[in-house]
Known about the structure:
Blueprint: E1 5-9, H1 15-22, E2 25-29, H2 35-41, E3 47-50, E4 67-70, H3 80-85, E5 90-91, H4 98-114, H5 116-126, H6 128-131, E6 145-149, H7 153-164, E7 168-172, E8 184-185, H8 188-194, E9 197-200, H9 214-219, E10 225-228, H10 237-245, E11 251-254, E12 274-276, H11 285-303, H12 315-321
Parallel strand pairs: 1-2, 1-3, 3-4, 4-5, 6-7, 6-9, 7-8, 9-10, 10-11, 11-12
Amino acid sequence: MSKRFKVLLTNSIHPSYHEELSKECDVIVAPDTKPETLKNLISDCDGLIVRCQLPEDIFDNAPQMKAVVRHGVGLDFIPVTAATKRAIPVANLPGSNTNAVVEYCMAVIFYFRRRLNSIDSALRSQGWGKARPLADSSTEISATTLGIVGMGAIGSKLAKAATGMQMNVIALTRRPETLPPGIKAATKEELFSQSDVIALCCPLNDQTRGLVDRASIAMMKSNAILINIARGPVMDTQAVLDALAEGRIAGAAMDVHDQHPLSGDEAVFDCPNLLLTPHIASITASSMRGMSKGSVETILAILHGKNVDNIVNPEVFLNKAE
């Protein structure tokens, strides 16, 4: 009888694909995501499916590890360099949650521009006469400018959705030559000064950390809104909070934060015109099913010695060959 692999899930996955994985592997779901818990559980595991931040030294405790798969796209949760040094393949699932994130961004734009939550609240608490005039200051999004920072899969699809709604789209990207027709490349200064909505869709790396600083925010229009679905450290959170409190920008949405999870004591909870969500832009019933399916298919393929094209550190196979 062939050996059954042992796979650790940092968090639960879709029940159907948990069951599918369990047919071939012994599956453990971590009871919490504390570093010590994960390091203790991983010691005799062959595979890991990741939905939370891993400690930098996680693979020091994983001598049998053969495959790590991100249940999603962002790789900042995984110490990829450390995995590569130990010849552990790491894979992610490009495009698996793109639709969900794009829909989140569009929902945020309508949340602020059409003010439906405020109007609903006023109608219920103050009556028709107080609620009706609130619509007078709502705005349509057609002919307004969306500035997108980062034109990967999410940024590109968001641009397509926005142009379909007759928005003007400008983009800050390292590869302006790849922009589709109708999308104008912009400098950082042009994007922050011209945009009515700014969506941060870039990965977190040395170039993007702190990209949105006080100087950038000072360039924004007073009626502009800022959406962060990238990573918290891409922007200076305190600078955004100060601008909102002083009315220098109209609104912001933060789905990602400097620290996850939020405790409830952070300054963001006392800030006006700020929409907070708990890192759920990529999560819908459909996307969760798709990410779980992709994670299970990928980890089983790697564990069974198959090469898959979504491995992000293929050099590990060269290391093994040597």
